[in-house]
Each structure stands twice: as C-alpha cells, then as structure tokens.
Amino acid sequence: MKLQSIAQGFIELILPIECGGCGEAGSRLCRKCRQVWEAPPQRVSTRIQQHIPVYSLGAYGGARAKTILSMKERGRLDLTQHVGAVLRAAIVNMQFHGHVPEAIALVPAPTTRRNERLRGGDPVHLACEASGIPSAQILRTSAAARDSADLSAAERKMNISGSIELLGMIDGPIVLVDDVITTGATLAASVAVLQSAGMNVVAALGFSHA
Ligand SMILES: [Zn+2]
What we know:
By secondary structure, the protein is an alpha/beta fold. The chain is built from 8 helices and 8 strands, in the order ααββααββααβαββαβ. It has helices at 2-14, 31-36, 62-73, 79-96, 113-119, 123-130, 153-161, 185-196, and strands spanning 42-44, 54-56, 105-108, 111-112, 139-141, 164-166, 173-181, 200-209. The strands form 2 sheets. It has a 5-stranded mixed β-sheet with strand order 1-2-8-7-3, with helices on both faces. The protein has a 3-stranded mixed β-sheet with strand order 4-5-6. α8 (185-196) links the parallel β7 (173-181) and β8 (200-209). The radius of gyration is 17 Å and the shape is globular. The structure holds zinc ion. InterPro entries: ComF/GntX_DNA_util-trans, PRTase-like, PRTase_dom. Belongs to the ComF/GntX family. It comes from Corynebacterium gerontici.
C-alpha cells in the first residue's frame, strides 16, 4: 500500500490531476461531480427480493458511474476518500431517520481476492475504511466463481451463493455496502451467508443502483 502511494505520487508529478467523475482537469472530483454524490440515500427495490431494506446513493449513470469506474477500472483509489466521506454522511442520514441503529458496522460486499490484487485494492472496502465507521471485510467470493456478466438473474444467484466465503464474525448490527446494486443477487447471497452464521444484517447500501 505504501509503495503504491509513492507510485501514485510520481504519477501525479507527471500527469495532471483530473476529475474522476467527468475528466475535467484541476481536481480529483470537481464541484459539479461532488454535487452528484451529495444526494441522500433512497430506498430501492431489486429484482431478487431482499429480506432487508436496500438503499442507494443514486441511479447508476453520469458522473456517479464514471467515478465508480475510475475507482474500479482505472486505479483511482484516491477517490475512495471522497466516497468514504459520502458513505459516512449517508449512514448518519439513515441513523437520523431511524433506518439503522446507532452502533453499526459496515461489511463490504464480497470481491474475489484475485480481482482485488489486480486492481490494487477493493474500492468498496477502502471507502468503508475511509468512512471512519467500523468495518470489516469478512466476505469473499472464491476465485472459482464464474464471471456473472452473461448469466441470468436466477443463474447468478445460484452461482454467487455457493461461492461466498465467510472470513470472520461481527457482533451487532451490520450494513452491507456495495458499489453497484443490480439484480440484488450478490446482496441476497451475502445476507444469507451472514444470517446463517447468526449475524444481524439490518440494511444494505449501494453507491448506486442500476
Ligand atoms: Zn467532474
């Protein structure tokens, strides 16, 4: 991680800083794109029914989508600091409205270890850490899981639920966090794994929903 931030520093000496949401030069996330990320969390429904309420910070598209892709695909892990702050504000908002209890822990949705290594870190995990809210990466998708892009919703659910590994336990209420909520297959499978181990999942929160 240290070496990586040193490398990042060198890259910034060479390349101008550009906005992770629109590409405009001059800042990591410009004022206009920051505004996109300021929307309060909203309740959303997924194709696969969930046993917990699901919230999203906004529809997947525009500056929000580009910011997420910048983190996931383009190595812009510096953006996880900003998204972490947004995540914290969203949780405080949900606590204020009584949607989640005061003392919660965040659990990032599972990612494969191999993917994470390739990308230099899981952005969802890093954003959870940057939020300052207690968090633990206790779910992982085993490397054997098939790429789910070309599977139907039902196939996805089958594919995912058999491949999530539990790496630890958390006492107290949990909010599951993911970057893009689509069919809800990953969420449903993750909740099932946590609940079957006796853990208390109270809500899920996505950076976006599609
Ligand atoms: Zn921008």
